[in-house]
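Listing S7. Sequence submitted for prediction.
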Amino acid sequence: MQEFIAFNEQRAEIYWWMSSLLARELTNEDVTEYHGDEMFTFLSGLGMTPELKEPVEAFRNAINTLKTREDAQLELAADFCGLFLSTPKSGALPYASIYVGESGLLNDKPAQDMNALMEEYGIAQRKEFNEPADHIAVELDFMGNLIIQANQELDEEKREALMQAQLAFVNDMLLNWIPAFAQSCKARDDFGFYTASVNLLVAFCQLDAAFLLGEE
């Protein structure tokens, strides 16, 4: 059981890390940390999983290429704004509604579904992050919290229900749109840091869905 709890904690940490990466521009401190030993060790661990080896290497290469960019933090901030804070025509907006909503506009059904799920599981959106509920960072943060809820549940039947809820969420609320989001990033991200980030996210979600399916 302790191994199961520890593994779940690792899963939650990865979802939270990706959430923070896609929530805001990286600071100078963040960029320095991405070049540090702790990130190298973390990515090395991820890359030992065969399904993640290729996307991890691509992400590492994107980090290494940052060293060749003058004013790397400012350039990355510009990339972030151009991709995620622009318009559907010029950017790759990080909202599920853009990809799987009926209208193609913000706050469509995926955002309403997310609000309902947050209410159902008692998981609140961070107050300082004033975005629609179907923003990728909100969805990833929710998934991390859902994982921890399963860890804290003592009743085996309820814990299993929470694991199945995670599987449904990954399939129905993440993998139903983030591959298209990744393609949109690839088409518009000249430098490629955020494309590599989202490709790694897609690969991790696919791997996590396979893990959760095996847990049923």
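Caption to Listing S7: primary sequence and predicted structure tokens for the chain studied. The longest helix spans residues 193-215. Residues 178 and 202 are 7 Å apart (CA to CA).
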